[in-house]
Amino acid sequence: MSGRRILTGLGEDGKSAILIDEPLDHSAGGAAMVWSAPALPIDNALPADAPFPVFSFDQMHAGGASFMVMEYPAEMGEFWHATDTVECVAMLSGEIVFMTETGEVTLRAGDTLVDRGIVHCWRNDTDQPARAAIVMMPAHPVGKGRTV
Fold first, then answer.
1. Mean pLDDT per 10-residue run, the chain (148 residues)?
2. Which SS3 state, helix, strand or coil, does residue 92 take?
3. Is residue 99 within 8 Å of residue 78, measured between CB atoms?
4. Which residues of 53-90 are buried (b: 16+ CB within 10 A; e: fewer)?
5. CA geometry: angle at 139 spanning 68 and 9, to 5°?
6. How many beta carbons lie within 10 A of that of residue 131, not counting itself?
7. Is there a contact between 96 and 132 (Cβ–Cβ < 8 Å)?
8. How far is CA 22 from CA 6, 49, 80, 81, in A?
9. Can you tell me the distance from the alpha carbon of 76 to that of 9, in angstroms, rounded to the nearest whole number?
10. Domains of the chain
């Protein structure tokens, strides 16, 4: 998967600047961490680079917010889980099935989803990869969730 991560901030001279412009680094699981912040509200005076340069489940419990791009491989099977997070998902390409304990919905490019920490699963029924942009924020647990 191609793509770049570009981050802005203040340069050494105190003027607005592009601080990072590099290829996205995808982990074996298909996640590419674009950026994360250790706490909310976000302190824009901190360095531009993410404290978690590669996706880790530790991010979900770190107290801040993360932005990543996820690729779901073609014909990806189910992985049921719940996390103590709110995840804002925007589909960029392809299609993916989002499953709950009582139903499912197919998400396609242009669709958005806000997952509020419930037990859920992702599945790709197509022969093409799907890609989503995800903002993840910590949340209090809900219901009978099994956290990752």
1. 82 91 77 83 78 60 82 93 91 96 96 94 96 92 62
2. strand
3. yes
4. eebeeebbebebbbbbbbbbeeebeeeeebbebbbbbe
5. 40
6. 20
7. yes
8. 7, 11, 33, 32
9. 37
10. 25-138 (2.60.120.10)
Instruction: Show the tokens assigned to 86.
Output: 């709110």
pLDDT at 103: 96
pLDDT of res. 76 = 94
Q: What is the DSSP letter of 141?
A: -
Instruction: Give 33's strand partners.
Output: 68
Helix or strand (DSSP H, E) at 131: strand 130-138
Check residue 121 and give its pLDDT.
Answer: 94
Spatial distance between the Cα atoms of 24 and 33, rounded to a whole number of angstroms: 8
pLDDT of 115 reads: 95
Q: What confidence score (pLDDT) does residue 3 get?
A: 82
| 3-state DSSP assignment of residue 10 | strand
CA distance 15 to 20: 15
